[in-house]
Amino acid sequence: xxxxxxxxxxxxxxxxxxxxxxxxxxxxxxxxxxxxxxxxxxxxxxxxxxxxxxxxxxxxxxxxxxxxxxxxxxxxxxxxxxxxxxxxxxxxxxxxxxxxxxxxxxxxxxxxxxxxxxxxxxxxxxxxxxxxxxxxxxxxxxxxxxxxxxxxxxxxxxxxxxxxxxxxxxxxxxxxxxxxxxxxxxxxxxxxxxxxxxxxxxxxxxxxxxxxxxxxxxxxxxxxxxxxxxxxxxxxxxxxxxxxxxxxxxxxxxxxxxxxxxxxxxxxxxxxxxxxxxxxxxxxxxxxxxxxxxxxxxxxxxxxxxxxxxxxxxxxxxxxxxxxxxxxxxxxxxxxxxxxxxxxxxxxxxxxxxxxxxxxx
Amino acid sequence: xxxxxxxxxxxxxxxxxxxxxxxxxxxxxxxxxxxxxxxxxxxxxxxxxxxxxxxxxxxxxxxxxxxxxxxxxxxxxxxxxxxxxxxxxxxxxxxxxxxxxxxxxxxxxxxxxxxxxxxxxxxxxxxxxxxxxxxxxxxxxxxxxxxxxxxxxxxxxxxxxxxxxxxxxxxxxxxxxxxxxxxxxxxxxxxxxxxxxxxxxxxxxxxxxxxxxxxxxxxxxxxxxxxxxxxxxxxxxxxxxxxxxxxxxxxxxxxxxxxxxxxxxxxxxxxxxxxxxxxxxxxxxxxxxxxxxxxxxxxxxxxxxxxxxxxxxxxxxxxxxxxxxxxxxxxxxxxxxxxxxxxxxxxxxxxxxxxxxxxxx
Lengths: 361, 361
Ligand SMILES: Cc1ncc(COP(=O)(O)O)c(C=O)c1O
Ligand SMILES: Cc1ncc(COP(=O)(O)O)c(C=O)c1O
Ligand SMILES: [Mg+2]
Ligand SMILES: [Mg+2]
Ligand SMILES: [Mg+2]
Ligand SMILES: [Mg+2]
Known about the structure:
By secondary structure, chain A is an alpha/beta fold.
């Protein structure tokens, strides 16, 4: 058995070099005589791991000093509640609904106050990003919420919405570290790590300091207060320590790869190979309007359910895993995150070409 | 460098055979061509991992069919809120405060209703377990809460409290799977896995089905509802998948070791070696009343801060790690969880004897 090309939308492919290092260090991490899994989170060795991870992330994303970096648990889904519980001072927030994850966040927001859907692309199965240049932002909105890359539908905000001065909160779970971002444009930028960064069980929250206050909604659990985690540098309680260690290795790998500018180039090149193929193919087509296409998640269809199923089956047999579209959408989806090598995309396109030739009359 | 004897209170020592397997499978798990870290949580391969882990835990603990097993995030600390949010129908709960973790749970309970401290051992620095045979249980208490093994202070409930028919909720973070328990005596039995079972980032909640209801406190986040996780078999959102996989390996290891009866014998033997030494030593002494001593966490002191510090330093140099007591207590603490080999305890006692001889006049 050897490694397959894994197009999973998350948990997803990780850099092979990172996995090799983790395997080599499993029984004894550096001079410590123990695995990172066995290490007290209050030890010097672990402190160095988490501090280095944070610093490398700060370097990669160029995070301004007035932002905290938090390594938390509960996944992106728990942020859907944590955000309103901490930020809804006026109990009003505006949501832009561009897919299932934005919708879930929006529904959760309603538990805590007046959550408004100020734009949506539900009318066309979330196959585009609405024009967000002049939206009816609420006078007293505590924040404007977006899901910046829509994992299921394969769309991406190429321009951030005009929030008319309101705090922007963005879920970047499926585009984290795939290209440079200007952190200063956000109040909160967060994501589960299990797509582009590491193993499931860690969510990274980058939050502007003025948004971290004691003044949370009444009934907010201690563990759901940003301030508790910020004041304790993500060590209020036992953190998901091993996951953070793997994230740290991926940050080092990204630095070695040349940083986020280089990753962007690399990701654009990879995505172009697949989109160019889809655009010339008579059998396969992408489902997203061109200008909103994600670099990370590429959904496509043949137009025939049987042909889709046949393709997925044969692709799997040929070593291309997890090409099935999300259960809510059908068709195919190739997630081509940072760690997917360009060879994987080239091989996929070659396979698709062969499949098309064999299955056309 | 070789592996040290790691007496950390958590995250803590894991079975070496488990770590070796994890290292060997890091790049390719069985026939899948990928790491478990890279695996979709909706894949057949992962479904088998999580289902097998659950079944093995059910076998080990003899969990009745009317209990659900949930693999969650947020650590034990998040349960401090999740328990009242889900169980406080009358908004009343009774807490037995036997240490810092019980106290934290009690304080968190106050956010959600009337939390009563019905017994405490704070008067003697939590060095004993109060008599719980006839406590003033509240008429309308939704549950009675205990921390069954007190990690910091080294005490353990040898008899469960008489709850007078009320639901018992127990934090077993630091004694999970260390000996057989009668699950049917509990409403909820839960713990973070990072002491006796696996890497930090997974909390296991074993909960009687009738306690899983839609009727949670208003404002309860979706992610903090037991029902959501129970209905979705711990796959409502992306679980801490790799951590669960390691827990599953530890369950297999426990089965190979002969199950919980055998672990209890083994743990009693290990603890006796250390306690017997402490009892005969003129320099070292245990801090807990004999009848309430934990099999897992053994705090001890010399009576002199300087001598304590010297001991910890020399022990570290000799390959005994993490013997420093909790920052809130001082002195020493040896955590001797399931995975600590008996050789480790013997070696420690030998070292303590040598230290005593060298440092006595
Ligand atoms: C964009 C986005 N947000 C949120 C989530 C939910 O993440 P989690 O499973 O960590 O709660 C996902 C999961 O796929 C996602 O793709
Ligand atoms: C008995 C007990 N309960 C709860 C906790 C808190 O666990 P966590 O750090 O997973 O929140 C600990 C941590 O050491 C503990 O020992
Ligand atoms: Mg989506
Ligand atoms: Mg086409
Ligand atoms: Mg304690
Ligand atoms: Mg003595």
